[in-house]
Amino acid sequence: MHEGIDRILVTSTVRATDFGDPGSSLGIIEASTGKNLGTVSVTDKPEPNSIAPVEVVFVPHSDPPVAWVTNMNDASLWTVTWNPESGTFDSAPGYDFSQVQAAVPLEIYFNADGSEMHVTTANPGKMHFFELSDGGRKATHVKTIDTAGGAHHVAYTQDGKYAFVQNSFINLPGMRDGSISVVDLASKEVISSWDTLKNNGFNPNSIVLLGEWNDPMGH
Fold it and tell me: Which of 58, 101, 129, 151 is buried most, with the most CB atoms less than 10 Å from its CB?
């Protein structure tokens, strides 16, 4: 949601029951009224393309507003940029994860000034670091690190020192390691693994620090 332009963007991922009917666009809603304003495509592939956009997040302080989208089945990132003249969004490709042998992109996070973006991919489990430029529209790949199968949600400390990556994506084969990777954000390296849940046969489904320590990183 972006209050400044009175818009909500909604992803069209898959049916929750069987992963069927994957979408290829974002729904656009007028926030103040709930009115459906149509869709914007986040692919240049002909239908049926089954790309399944799974997350969309606005870059902090971007002007005009820019949002990044993870396409789960396409191993890609796309951008949508607000066009004040047309009153809608322009979309463009942002990054192809096949360049770093990664697939199933899921979560997106931004630092406070919108200059850095982090993205997780579940298969294989990795965390990716990007620098943003051109008002948030361009991403330059900085580094990719291995976490473990199913890299999904990330929790960040307010002091900017650590990130904790939940390595489990709804218990899917090859994407359910069950560990939590501890990442040093200065060195961009995994420095430890919390295996308590994994060693007891459990998989984490979400992760967030208590309010005293948690940085939402754009969420």
Answer: 151
φ/ψ of 87, rounded to 5, equals: 70, 25
Domain count, the chain: 1
Tell me the three state secondary structure of residue 97: helix
Beta strands in the chain (DSSP E): 7-11, 25-30, 36-41, 53-58, 66-71, 76-83, 88-96, 103-110, 116-123, 126-133, 138-146, 151-157, 162-167, 180-184, 189-194, 214-215
- Residue 66 belongs to a domain: yes
- The tokens describing 93, both together, are 């490709």
* 39-90 confidence digits (pLDDT tens): 999 999 988 888 999 999 999 999 999 999 999 999 999 999 999 999 999 9
Q: pLDDT tens digits for 178-200?
A: 999 999 999 999 999 999 999 99
Residue 168 lies in a domain: yes
**What is the token pair recorded at 129?**
């670091």
Residue 157: CATH number of its domain: 2.130.10.10
* CA–CA separation, 189 and 7 (whole Å): 37
Task: Compute the distance between CA of residue 76 and CA of residue 209 in angstroms, rounded to an integer.
Answer: 28
Domain that holds residue 184: 7-215
Mark residue 190 as left, alpha or beta (left: phi above 0; alpha: psi -120 to 50; beta: remaining).
beta
Taking the C-alpha atoms of residue 99 and residue 101, their distance in angstroms, rounded to an integer, is: 6
**pTM to 2 decimal places:** 0.95
